[in-house]
Amino acid sequence: MAHFDTEYQRLEASYSDSPPGEENLLVHVPEGSKSPWHHIENLDLFFQRVYNLHQKNGFTCMLLGEIFELVQLVFVVAFTVFLANCVDYDILFANKFVNHTDSSKVTLPDAFLPVDVCSARIRDNVFVIFILIISGVFWLHRLVKFIYNICCYWEIRSFYINALKMSMTDLPYFTWQEVQARIIEIQKEHQICIHKKELTELDIYHRILRFKNYMVAMVNKSLLPVRFHLPLLGDTVFYTRGLKYNFELIFFWGPGSLFENEWSLKPEYKRGGNRLELADRLSSRILWIGIANLLLCPVILIWQILYAFFSYTEVIKREPGSLGARCWSLYGRFYLRHFNELDHELMSRLSKGYKASSKYMNCFMSPLLTVVAKNVAFFAGSILAVLIALTIYDEDVLAVEHVLSSITLLGICITVCRSFIPDKHMVFCPEQLLKVILAHIHYMPDHWQGNAHRYETRDEFAQLFQYKAVFILEELLSPVITPFILIFCLRRKSLEIIDFFRNFTVDVVGVGDTCSFAQMDVRQHGHPAWMSAGKTEASIYQQAEDGKTELSLMHFAITNPHWQPPRESTHFISLLKEKVHREAAAGQQGIIAENPAFTSTHSLQSDSEPRSLIANLLMGPPSLASLHLGREGSINPVSIGVSEGASALRSLSPVSTSQHLRGSYPSARLPRPDHPAVVAGRAMTGSGTDARTISSGSSAWEGQLSSMVLSEYASTEMSIHALYMHEMHNQQSRGEVSRHTWHRQESDESSESVNEDMEAARTFPRSSTFPTTSHQAGAAQQSGSQRHYGRTSDPVSGSFRAQRTPRMPMGGWSEENQMSRHHDPVPEEGSEDELPPHIHKVT
Length: 843
Known about the structure:
There is one protein chain. By secondary structure, the protein is mainly α. Strands 1-2 form a two-stranded antiparallel ribbon. A two-stranded antiparallel ribbon has the order 3-4. The termini are close together. Belongs to the ATG9 family.
């Protein structure tokens, strides 16, 4: 039985990646044999810089990027001041004539004011002086930071060259997994971390993603105030880079934050007795930061407008339809992100799902808007055609006032109208498209299943996949809205935030304080509805929503095949892979209709991925020529060799995949010609793979091809497991709904048992901040269904009442009635029984 303790706990051996007997190891190295990278004090920053230098393709590229950022800031400020104070617009617009002795044509320098006049206008403008002072201070700060970063990254460059044996020229051709493997190898020689004899992949991920894992967990538990219900707009999500910056400033690294350094939570936040005092302190700090944002709002707003104008004006002029394109929202990136998923891994997944997501959103074109757009485009095109014809006949037509402007505006109008006219060859198949999207993004609310054709599903998906124009507008409005979100929304959650960091922070040996969700332990944070039934001891409060723990565990294990997970996680991974292989093999024998492995993949269309590895993997090693495609490009179920696909999946096990690493310093070689990955590489060449990759005989290109193929196969394996887990989750949910419906209709005893469960649940103490205080109380609530957040309790009597909600927010707790909830006073240190639930201590 789980034992809940009310104090912050150091993570014991079941969580530690240290070998037995090395939990408190402190390695001693003689002074003369120490390397320059022995006992790096701040490993978080060190690994982050190693990762950043790899992602920026070496020191030279990073240096040029930093220099151009400094120059860009000076250019934006100087050019704006020049346009506002040093240009005579009357001459520019021909409202005032200029007398010339040598020529009658007005030149551009004629519109520039003299230097003394320009400088006088700048000195007399107090607002401009204020902007220049603020910009100068900010630029000097950036300059000092740039010099400091260059010195630090020079050391990282030396680390790559001397320790990892990787030159800056070859660095772009190495994958991060290869860099990470070399770091783990040299730990034995250089002792980068002296608290552990060996480093693991999870140690490195934890240090790079320490704070991001907290943010992902808070989004998953709907703790951050980013979802709002507005009177006219309905349910909306507002999460911008400015708001994210303020969250991180408050929680992690700003003055007075919850962390005392990059790897340790402040001791007072690890104890529960003073939680109310800490909540008041955090609330006051949020208030002052909100006020500071409000005071700096004009300056930040002007900067946002100018930066957006200089960044997007040329793009809009060249491609007017770019504003109608879509991008993954910042909220979507956190909602869809796995625990322990690096930036390039996330963007790779989302980029693969971009095309199918765009097609899905385009399925919902309004017929009325399409009719209007067609006719507006016809009228604008007719006028534009006449103007172009006249211009071809006589170029003097362009000298007529507003002719050139009219041509430009008409062209933009036609381009915008075309974005609302669907392709006449497009087939409306939202369910199949949503399945393809799920194969890449891995997360999807339950109520989207079977409702892909509804506008409600489309609107919710638009919160994850928004228009580029909406993204720009939100960033422009962020300086105005962010202060009010901090002052009026985030402050209310101060106590919940304090409890969250205390309850979900664990001290991992050799790593420091990390988010317990990032441990990906199905026993502590698994969800019974996501194949963790019987393996998890988590209460409702401790469960990660939407299968985040289970999917993150599978993703990390597939991405890092050398990682040795804990025993419970190993059992979960092995059992899941065994089920996929077994049911895939059963599908070959004719049990296809009820097979979740087939059901989750047969609807993937080749139209969205013409030669995708998913289809190739299900086909097995033979080429795609044997794949029979039905009408509209759907995969023919009869032709799918699922058992061969299972064999291909089995070949991706950690043992076989690890063979692509070469010795102690791996640089990938090509697999054997008959290896499934090479077969997949041949299929990839037919879908547009760079010919240089295939034809080049150099080791760099061979290593890149091998890494690309293996990475693609790992991505495909994860996609199939994600589809399978969602299909099993849906079947379990449908089975439970039908079972409980049958009980309500046919059995009177079921209602009595439910009442008994309700009575049993009343005996457990309730918290006004969190749903439950014990594992048993959570288990009692799980008897009805797998969704527990529509049920509320009376804080006085403790009785439960079922509450039907129309739609739950993606990722967790219902925000209803939170305004009416008040926190009960909590006694001092001596009485801790009424505190919210804590992570149980592993014994």
